Automatic annotation (TrEMBL), chain A:
<dbReference type="GO" id="GO:0020037">
    <property type="term" value="F:heme binding"/>
</dbReference>
<dbReference type="GO" id="GO:0016966">
    <property type="term" value="F:nitric oxide reductase activity"/>
</dbReference>
<protein>
    <submittedName>
        <fullName>Nitric-oxide reductase subunit C</fullName>
        <ecNumber>1.7.2.5</ecNumber>
    </submittedName>
</protein>
<keyword id="KW-0349">Heme</keyword>
<keyword id="KW-0479">Metal-binding</keyword>
<keyword id="KW-0812">Transmembrane</keyword>
<keyword id="KW-0560">Oxidoreductase</keyword>
<keyword id="KW-0408">Iron</keyword>
<feature type="domain" description="Cytochrome c">
    <location>
        <begin position="44"/>
        <end position="125"/>
    </location>
</feature>
TrEMBL record, chain B:
<keyword id="KW-0560">Oxidoreductase</keyword>
<comment type="similarity">
    <text>Belongs to the heme-copper respiratory oxidase family.</text>
</comment>
<dbReference type="GO" id="GO:0016966">
    <property type="term" value="F:nitric oxide reductase activity"/>
</dbReference>
<dbReference type="Pfam" id="PF00115">
    <property type="entry name" value="COX1"/>
</dbReference>
<feature type="transmembrane region" description="Helical">
    <location>
        <begin position="170"/>
        <end position="193"/>
    </location>
</feature>
<dbReference type="InterPro" id="IPR000883">
    <property type="entry name" value="Cyt_C_Oxase_1"/>
</dbReference>
<protein>
    <submittedName>
        <fullName>Nitric-oxide reductase subunit B</fullName>
        <ecNumber>1.7.2.5</ecNumber>
    </submittedName>
</protein>
<dbReference type="GO" id="GO:0020037">
    <property type="term" value="F:heme binding"/>
</dbReference>
<dbReference type="GO" id="GO:0016020">
    <property type="term" value="C:membrane"/>
</dbReference>
Amino acid sequence: MLSKSQARTFFLGGTVVTFLIFIGLTIYSMAPSNDQSNHQNITEQVIKGKHIWETNNCMGCHAILGEGGYYAPELTKVIDRKGAPMVKAILQSPIPWAPNGRKMVAYEMNDEDAEAMVEYLKWIGEIDLNGFERIVSPLAKDKIKD
Amino acid sequence: MRDSTPIIGAGYDHCKQKNKHMKYKSQQVAYWFFALCMLLFALQIVYGFIMGFARIGMDGLHDWIPFNTARAVHTNLLVVWLLTGFMGAAYYIIPEEAQRELVSVKLAYVQLISLAVVGVAAITGYHFNIWEGRKFLEIPRELDYLVVINVLLFLGIILATLFKGKRQTTTALVMTMGLVFAALLYLPGMIWFDSQVTDSFFRWWVVHLWVEGVWELIMGGILAFLLIKLTGVDREVIEKWLYVIVGLTFLSGILGTGHHYYYIGVNKIWLIVGGVFSALEPLAFLAMALFAVYMYRKGEKNHPNKIALFWTIGAAIVSFIGAGLLGFAHTLPQTNLYTHGTLVTAMHGHYAFWGAYVMIVLAIISYAMPNITGRKRHDKTNGHLAFWLSNIGMLGMVVALGVAGVVQVYLERRLSMDFMVAQEEVKIHFVVMLLCATMFATGIGIYIYEFIKYGRPTDEALTKNEEAVLVS
């Protein structure tokens, strides 16, 4: 029968071993040779777009890379789906955009901020998502290259 | 608020009751943490209703509380009140386990007040577009530093009490280890990354490794403490199995983080690692459920606080269903490809948090309140009513969310229907969810009413305990 000290060894040993493997896999994933996100394409505008995305808590309603609020559409492939001009128009609208009656906050962004958001969403749309890009936006899948 | 219910011990056999009272005066600090829990929990439910009504088109509060504000408040209040509950549990459990008073009651109150101030500041800020906009970690970085100071103060009090104590039990060590790791894991969430992918990757170090890792240590510690007290089973037996359970938790949970990395833009290796190890995650919860039920069956059945036992065993069983089974239902990469980013996740999230963490905090509060206040209200019908109404209500909410999630997946991701058109189709399930949420809120309302009726901590409970020890 298992003793208390054996149980403790199982706990401590298992924790240390799995944590070390986890750190190793993290380093492996973050290596530039394994990058799937086109990291080199992250421009100042993309960074600014991410900042605007966060400071307005867009994720509180929308989802991106499949993560978010599930209240408003997934935006990973939104540029493919709606086109950059429409996305800009929605971000700059002085009245709440309300498809099917569900309201979005009217952000009334200036041209510079709206452009940064578009660049950010374009970069997001080019990430290799291990096949999820085909599922997350079926309406855009015809535009996704094989 | 006080009623005329007799103090525990009046007419009781003191020898048998010596473990059923508060042993140390400083344990009273826990009461105020629990009171803050009740307040924040009630607010969390209010914001949940705002979200539910918005989903069925009744968003009259949109101009003041848009959905993203309601959501950030709803989820952050959950995190804050659960952490407050864990802290309260630690202030109650650690003195009893270490067999000494807390090293500083004043500092514990300072910590409580500063925690409440940071929490209120963050929640208020969300109404004025002041946040970080990262799911579950919306607190602005400036406030993050205050959170760190607050948690360091808390850990200082707990660790000093533990190591100055007469003994360091496994229960106390596991729980404290969970609290220390939870504090350390908060740090990766404070780093800024230019890349959304890297940001998301390390955000899960906080969120996943909290809820599917170190928080389970805290839950395990509280569960072990309650089982020792409520069943009377030998501490050595319970603590041995506690090690096995938390061992299984880390063995599966750490590499199980990979299930969040399938489709966010990182290497395919996580499809295999995450798939295999997250499929093992239910084992820890299954072990916890079997452990709790077995200890209950093996132990004495004469502890008077039956409602605390209901919440304790309930937490172990519901966490297995919510976190274990419902998590497993969409954790394999082949399934998650379709369910990632849908209401299926919300379904799992609600039942997992409810079973694993909310119920265990309500269990320790139910156990501690008669001991802290000296009032024997644990045999009231209201307690059982609160338990069943909230549990049935939550189950109904989870079923409604689950049906909405499956329909959403089918319409949107199989039939290529537009997001908003699919949302129209699932609206009816949110009406059902709101009805069930009303039942749930009634149950929690009764729980909070009972909490208030207990009244404030009293030294009489402590005095009676001293008498009890003397008599025994």
